[in-house]
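Deliverable D4.2, example record:
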Amino acid sequence: MSQTPSLKSQQFRVAGMDCGSCAKTIEVGLLSLKGVDSALVSFTTGIIKLSYDPMYVNETAIYDRIVALGYTVERISEVPKSPTDGCKYNQNHQHEHHCVDIPKTDTAHWKFWTTNRRGQSVILAGVGLILGLVAQKMALSVWIARFFYGIGIIIAGYPIARAGLFELRLRRADMNLLMTVSVIGAVILNDWFEAGLVVFLFSLGSTLQLFSFGRTRNAIRALMNLTPSIATVKRNDEEVSVSIGTVEVGETLVIRPGGRIALDGIVIKGASAVDQSAITGESIPEDKLPGDVVYAGTINQTGFLEVKVTHTANDTTVAKIINLVEEAQESKATSQQWVDKFASIYTPIVILIALAISLIPPFAFSQAFDVWVYRALVMLVIACPCALVISTPVSIVSAIGAATRLGVLFKGGYALETAGKLHTVAFDKTGTITQGLPTIQNVYSISASIEKILEIAASLEIQSEHPFAKAIVAEAYKQRIKTITPENFQSFPGKGVWGSLNEQTYAVGNRRLFKEIGIPILSEVASILAEVELKGQTPILVGNEKQLLGVIAVSDGLRLEAAETVRLLKQAGVKKQVMLTGDRDVVASSIARQIGITEYRAELLPQDKLAEIQKLQRNGVVGMVGDGINDAPALAAADISFAVGGIDIALETADIVLVGSDLRKLAYAVNLSRRTVSVIQQNVVFSLITKGLFLLLGTFGIVGLAVAVLADTGSSLLVTANGMRLFQVKDNFHYTSPRVEKRL
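Output generated by the structure prediction step:
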């Protein structure tokens, strides 16, 4: 169906999926509804993204289809306008939309087994199995034993059979259909105990898997609970409590000590320490003063703050992070794409082999029909590729969840896999290796006063976002020098700026710009420039069309963790580190020497950095580390890009975002990537070996249905547990983030 303006998009949260094939089942089931244009189901997040035409299908029909498949569903509404907003589907098929708080089922809590219908059915199936076995051992009537076995089979087997029959209608075969066929076959063969045991073991195994995987899902969903639903806002000189969904940009939040900040904003009054660990992963609180940025979900610790709102509830940094993490979980790594393709070919082949096993020996070799049918049923159970399909996503979700808690955001499976393959890491200098907070060290007067030089430079640089420009403007404000609005303003990336002030044209930039303009640099000026550069400072030239007026010496301090970052990357096995900068060679050489980088490229324009990245790629996988603002071509060209600094821009530009701006987490990202790839490989190999071994054992009648179920669910549980080990991975470097004291 083509896209039309009448299509409606909606998201739902589905519960009850315990295998990757479940997501595919729901997708196929929804797409079979007339009017559904697209359906994307993420097993890892439990979220359905749906596009449909309300003229042909409504939400009730969508809910009914999902419930018919054996799952429960909740609608995900936008940020509520009031505390009671939200819609939930009535499971009793009364199609109502209640305005209530939607309680989330915690599948990782033990009460799940007694309060959730799925957990209850497992318990009842176990009780029925035990009672049936007791009746059988006491030599009671066979019908009493079958009655108890039947109770367990019906209670736990009904949702399995319902989903399996729906799969059959969709011309698909998943574990539910295979299990249903196996149980019916066991009953026909009068092996009621085995049928009851198969249902119980399968239900228990899939529920345990759901229970285990729920821990990872819940940990990531905890991000959604960071922001409070109510904010205190100043309106008409009064403090009022309102839903965060009603707060507009520009309004003033009031945050008292101990309160959680509801929305992103800028401090306009007060001073306090703010715990930003939920966003950045850094345990040390950040001191906040007027003019500083604060994020939704962080905790005000010591002082009273008034904050001007800069982002609405749906546009906060934490909302972007949640969206990024969900998208990252949904994106498929290269290994997962291979597994999915393999499984799609593997399953039909196995079904054909099972049919051959059940028919060829009885008809061609006069073997016992029931024996070979039983063996075919065993093979079908063993052959289901659940463990194989789940082996990759559970590892990726666990790794992404662990990294998110430490302030490292991966934008998907590809980024997670590629980071561990790095051969070379290229660093931008300003704002990446350096703090990005340069200061004016000196102003050299040549043909104008110091005040005039600062006035010209600040007037032309006031609109620039470059750290050096901000330093010049800050120094002018400090000395109470008024700026002038420039005319005919032009910016030359990597060189400087040009514009007219009071009908006189001026330029501010580096030597390359002044050489192109044709302004001569006299020998006495050259000695000043040499002196500035020997100190590791950067000279900013200021002049008019005829002559050089002065030189501003700017220096940017190194990040305190820069040298340790280089050491940790070498320790992690990254073979080469290179610094790329537009700065002078002598400055680049001084900085590279201080942090332990042996290779650098200086005096590069943005296009030159792009060319350098392409050269480095000849030797292997290249990662580019920048601040997410400049060097966009180089970041885009690299095999994988890392962004530090401004969170808003970094979230849009990089494959991996270091939210806390601590460079040392580069090494953590590399190591986590390698561990994740190793765990995925372990899971895939284990799944294939287990399947192959038990397929042989089942074919030759060495193992029965119960063992087959144990082999299938057991392997799924083991790969889940192995993947979830990544969620417990901590940053092994045991450091606290270095901090630069604020200048009051």
